[in-house]
Amino acid sequence: MLIKSLAVTAGILWTGAAWSSIDMGSLSQSHVDGELIITFSEGVSHEEKLAILEASGASLIKEFKSSNAALVKVEGTGQENTLEAAGMFARTNAIARIGLNRIFKINARPSDPSFSRQYQYDLIGAEEAWDITTGSKDIVVGVIDTGIVYNHPDLEENIWRNPGETGLDDDGNDKSTNGIDDDGNGYVDDFRGWDFAEDDNDPMDDHGHGTHCAGSIGAVSNNGEGIAGLNWNVTLVPLRFITARGEGTEADAIEAIEYATMMGFDMTSNSWGGDAEGDGDGTDPLYEAIKKAGEAGQLFIAAAGNDGRDTDRRPTFPASYDLDTIISVASSDSRDRMSGFSNYGASTVDLLAPGSNVYSTIKRGWFGNYYGNMSGTSMAAPIVAGAAALIKSEFPKETPLELKARILDGAEPVSAGKGKLTTEGRLNVFRSLTL
């Protein structure tokens, strides 16, 4: 839900201008009570921001690196109080945009574990692709999700180790546990990723969703364990912003994207989203974070959503943002039919990938072992992320736009995609590798 300031008076003082009306229909979007994401106008100093917040009884929680936005805490609780605070902020032209701290949800559905195992590889030409490349540890994929079970027997070898937080410091202490920000990136002991929901260095998956996504991208292969990932060799970074409830805030998502950008990861896999409005301009901090990531050379693979609707008419974000470095992924089944739950859009969704009853790594306990089936566009997106990583290993100098073009141009035409996707096709990694 977005509220835009109508103030036009010069300066940053509170004005008499009326604040904009609120689209009450958008208030159904889940959000964090008592928090707002505010985008300040260009030229407003840090001191002026603090003064504006103090004048309204609000406090600064964090500022974002990729835009002139900040997460703030307002006084009191309840939706009415939060909107009242938004109205106060909208009376100054020092603020360009005011939004709720939206809650995004994962795009997955648990499935019966007895269904087919890893049928997706036959469909997408994986075995033929593996004759060309099985991946590279040099390719780094940020999994922005519920975290990863980083000690999973089929994932552990492919989990990232931050080189700046690995080894011994000058005092002979292990950098990963010395309580010092050795690499100076603002995150202490982030040796295997970060938990943005809890603001600590333990991105362990207590849900299972992120671990399932990670396995599709890069479960270790030829190790006598469980399954094969699309990449036998790859580097996976757990970036946890979604909790065990399957929900995470917009502010934490932005910070996770900014971290991945700062650390120079090649791409991110994003199996989450929401129905809320997105401005898609310089005042929208989530859009800006993804835009800056793309400008830094990072591909953003996003799940199209599980509402079974046309996102050309009713978009879902972040997948529907009009950014060249986003690949929006719909879900198909083992017979190349579009999954009944999958969103689609002739101009907003790019291609299909297997997402129904996908067998992958999970958090132990769901089905009594470390493997199970799940369904959703959440499962389709990491298969495309895995394909992107595999292709990147063969063509390491390709830009995000070149990599995206190779993936989309290699899509195999299927009837389910006709008139519903930009490519009208389903992922075929072998075709993409051999273009």
CATH class category label of the largest domain:
Alpha Beta
Rg from Cα: 22 Å
By secondary-structure content and strand pairing, the structural class works out as alpha/beta
* Helix segment tally: 10
Relevant CATH superfamily of the largest domain: Peptidase S8/S53 domain
Q: What is the average of the pLDDT values?
A: 88
Report on the architecture of this protein.
The chain is α/β, with parallel strands linked by helices. It has two domains: 2-103, Alpha-Beta Plaits (2-Layer Sandwich); 109-433, Peptidase S8/S53 domain (Rossmann fold, 3-Layer(aba) Sandwich), CATH 3.40.50.200. The chain is 23% helix and 22% strand. It contains ten helices and 19 strands. The chain has helices at residues 46-55, 79-89, 120-124, 126-130, 209-218, 250-262, 285-295, 377-394, 400-409, 429-433, and strands spanning 2-3, 31-40, 59-63, 69-73, 95-106, 109-110, 135-145, 194-195, 233-240, 247-249, 267-270, 272-273, 299-303, 326-332, 351-354, 358-361, 371-375, 412-413, 425-426. Strands 1, 2, 3, 4, 5, 10 and 12 form a seven-stranded antiparallel sheet that branches. α5 links the parallel β8 and β9. α6 runs parallel beside α7 (285-295). The two termini are 42 Å apart. Residues 1-26 and 109-116 have low confidence and may be disordered.
Topology of this structure?
Layout: E1 2-3, E2 31-40, H1 46-55, E3 59-63, E4 69-73, H2 79-89, E5 95-106, E6 109-110, H3 120-124, H4 126-130, E7 135-145, E8 194-195, H5 209-218, E9 233-240, E10 247-249, H6 250-262, E11 267-270, E12 272-273, H7 285-295, E13 299-303, E14 326-332, E15 351-354, E16 358-361, E17 371-375, H8 377-394, H9 400-409, E18 412-413, E19 425-426, H10 429-433
Parallel strand pairs: 7-9, 7-11, 8-9, 11-13, 13-14, 14-15
Antiparallel strand pairs: 1-5, 2-4, 2-5, 3-4, 5-10, 5-12, 6-17, 16-17, 18-19
